Amino acid sequence: MLNIAKLSVSAAGRTLLHEVSFSVAASEMLCVIGESGAGKSTLLKGLMGLMPCRYERFEHRSSAEESAFATTSGLGLPACRYVMQDPLAALNPKRSLGQSICESLYTQKLPAPEQRNRALSALEAVELPVEFYDRLPKEVSLGQAQRACLARALVAEPELIIFDEPLSALDALVQKKIALKMDQLRREIGITYIVVTHDLGFAAAYADRILLLRNGRMETFQDKGDFFANPASAYASDLVGAAQTLGALNRMEAAE
Ligand SMILES: Nc1ncnc2c1ncn2[C@@H]1O[C@H](COP(=O)(O)OP(=O)(O)OP(=O)(O)O)[C@@H](O)[C@H]1O
Questions:
Q1: How many angstroms is it from 91 CA to the middle of ligand 1?
Q2: ipTM passes above 0.90
Q3: Can you give the residue ranges of the ABC transporter domain (predicted)?
């Protein structure tokens, strides 16, 4: 679905991300990992056209259209939803969570009662009670706001969802339920995911491919099995070893 070669992203005249190459096929999950400041969010913002980029190849194929973009000011991806790292910044403070979720359905031109039903189902999918439909962002916790942002992305069942640390503010039980829901949607309706995460247990359970960034550069890009069995660099090997020592890799087994 996405095939990217030598993508660089800059801000204020400085290159923050240098020549990163990766691909992700339809219905796959790509996990982007790396230490704080490695350039993970910058990569997502570049993909979404929110920061200036340059690249050698940028191919995005969707069922809606086949396209290869060629701009230098930013890319942007049609048929895609982006869930930012900061959920409170992402939600309109004057609109209820339900209204924000319904906005995600605007292109589908559904009657209002159907929109509401879809939004309520999306709230349920992220383990939020229906009464949250009418709550304002200031009336919910950070983790609840994060789940509302997830619901807003999932409700539209887009082809591609780009998540920046979707589960970071959630407790382990809710993390697992939402991870399973994401995996179910991937298998049932073929959603493709690009997920930034610090959680190697999540990547071990759900990713198909893993892109490891370090100091604004690509350290490794491997299939998940290879990444954990034969990490392609000493740094990747240290990371996998540390996660094994901490027992982090078996924390979230995927559904069969
Ligand atoms: N708009 C900007 N202008 C200048 N520098 C920036 C800008 N955005 C990010 N940076 C810098 O780029 C580097 C990568 O930042 P980025 O947010 O992509 O890291 P990250 O890997 O997502 O980190 P974290 O895991 O902490 O969220 C950091 O050193 C950051 O300070």
A1: 21
A2: yes
A3: 2-240
Residue type, position 214, single letter? R
Task: Go through the domains of the chain in sequence order and give each one's CATH number.
Answer: 1-79+159-256 (3.40.50.300), 90-157 (no CATH)
Q: How far is the CA of 26 from the centre of ligand 1 (A)?
A: 28
Given the CA of residue 11, which atom of ligand 1 is nearest to it? 3
- Cα–Cα distances in Å, from 130 out to 135, 144, 146, 149? 10, 12, 16, 15
Residue type, 91: L
**What's the chain's average pLDDT?**
87
Orientation of helix 142-155 relative to helix 112-125, angle to 10°: 130
Q: How far apart are the C-alpha atoms of 169 and 147, rounded to whole Å? A: 9
pTM, two decimal places: 0.89
Task: Give the integer Cα–Cα distance in Å for 46 and 44.
Answer: 5
Q: What are phi and psi of 187, to 5 degrees?
A: -75, -35
Pull the structure tokens for residue 184: 């179910």
